[in-house]
Amino acid sequence: MNDYYAGDDEQARPRYTTRQDAIDQAIAPALAEGNYDLEAICRETFDWKIDVNGKGQELLNTGGFEQTVSEEEFWEIAAKHEII
Question: Rounded to whole angstroms, how far apart are CA atoms 25 and 34?
């Protein structure tokens, strides 16, 4: 996991090096009870993010998968991908 400081106007969110890290460390623990398509949930709730400096250059050490939906949206998406 790559925690970063997002700045005063943004809330810091953890970033995960790989999609599997996001699943293992964020999604699976939240959904410990039940059977879900974790890959599908990850694809809908996490996106690759990377910070850019003032010159427009990507800061490679800041890249990672970051949750891009609210907690409420996460649970709605998870419900869609529950395997019954």
Answer: 17
Kindly report the three-state secondary structure assignment for every residue of the chain. Answer: CECCCCCCCCCCCCEECCHHHHHHHHHHHHCCCCCECHHHHHHHHEEEECCECCCCCECHHHCEEEECCCHHHHHHHHHHCECC
Contact 13, 66 (CB under 8 A): yes
Residue-range definition of the domain harbouring residue 51: 15-80
Is 10 part of any domain? no
Write the pLDDT tens digit of every residue in 21-73.
999 999 999 999 889 999 999 999 999 999 999 999 999 999 999 999 999 99
Claim: this prediction has a pTM higher than 0.85? no
Q: Does residue 8 belong to any structural domain of this protein?
A: no
| Residue position matching structure tokens 């990850």 | 42
Q: Are 58 and 47 in contact (CB under 8 A)?
A: no
